[in-house]
Design goal:
By secondary structure, the chain is α+β, with helices and mostly antiparallel strands. Helix content is 20%, strand content 20%. Bound molecules: ligand MTE and molybdenum atom.
Amino acid sequence: MLIGKPADIRYSEITPKATYLRRREFLQAASAAAVGTAAALAPSLSGTADAQVQGPGVLPKLSNVKTSALSTTEKQSAYSDFSTYNNFYEFGADKASPAINAKRLKTRPWKIAIEGHVAKPAVLDFDEFVKPYVLEERIYRHRCVETWSAVVPWIGIPMADIVRRLQPTSQARFVEFVTLFDPVQMPWQHDAVLQWPYIEGLRLDEAMNPLTILAVGMYGEILPNQNGAPIRLVVPWKYGFKGGKSLVKIRFVESMPRSTWMIKEPPAYGFYANVNPTVDHPRWSQTRERRLGEFVPRRTTMFNGYTDQVAKLYAGMDLRRNY
Ligand SMILES: Nc1nc2c(c(=O)[nH]1)N[C@H]1C(S)=C(S)[C@@H](COP(=O)(O)O)O[C@H]1N2
Ligand SMILES: [Mo]
């Protein structure tokens, strides 16, 4: 390992030539795609630039991002941890693989289909889809059912704004979020570990709760591919698996969608998936969690600490049966 490499040694000299060339190609492609995103997003933002986030400087920065009273002031997880410890089964089943394998994902051009019980079904280009909205920073707790957690400064669009604009009809009671199916780019989709594409769903009122966002960035920058570029769902009072990555379709439907993890193992993964320290997963007690970068576990809190904002959604429901 090279420690403290002198500034005058060029990257190409310390890396085998073939690797270097491949990496250079990737970096060029990645930055071209990324710059396209930033440029496309920038003119559409009408919010006040009151969030001065210090990004890690890896990807293009998002500007004109509003801050939010819904953000936590808890210590944020390190970008280097949160962008290298991922669940994204389309790119491998272990935590380190997505950061390596998702590099090949092409996030431009990217289409988003709006389907089902909605005023105007449409297929929109990603940049066209996000254009009407003001981006907000939402610093949220993030809790995986595997009992690791993080604090993440997401940047996104309130889902309620999107729903209002898309005008679902009175028949729409649930929203289904469908993610990309493309085994050429996502080689693990050849593997039947999960049913592809990865699908998640929310009740319409859950989708419209002020906490629910579609994220297009984190840590002041556009999303890295492994965290769900170009756009992913974030529902902070639910286990992380509800947050489908790399979305291509939003469907307004009448009945409860059957999501990927419900199909995989019904007793372990329910539709609601609300963070609940009193209801255990068959293999993981949910009493405690460990934050990325920390060693001492902490107690998990009901609805991941968002009880004030979401408890009313479940008034009168048995959360043991509706897990
Ligand atoms: N398409 C897709 N979305 C997904 C997953 C996945 O495997 N594929 N994993 C889920 C799980 S289990 C979690 S915990 C979160 C992890 O998001 P992160 O890697 O950004 O922390 O993404 C969710 N969204
Ligand atoms: Mo997860």
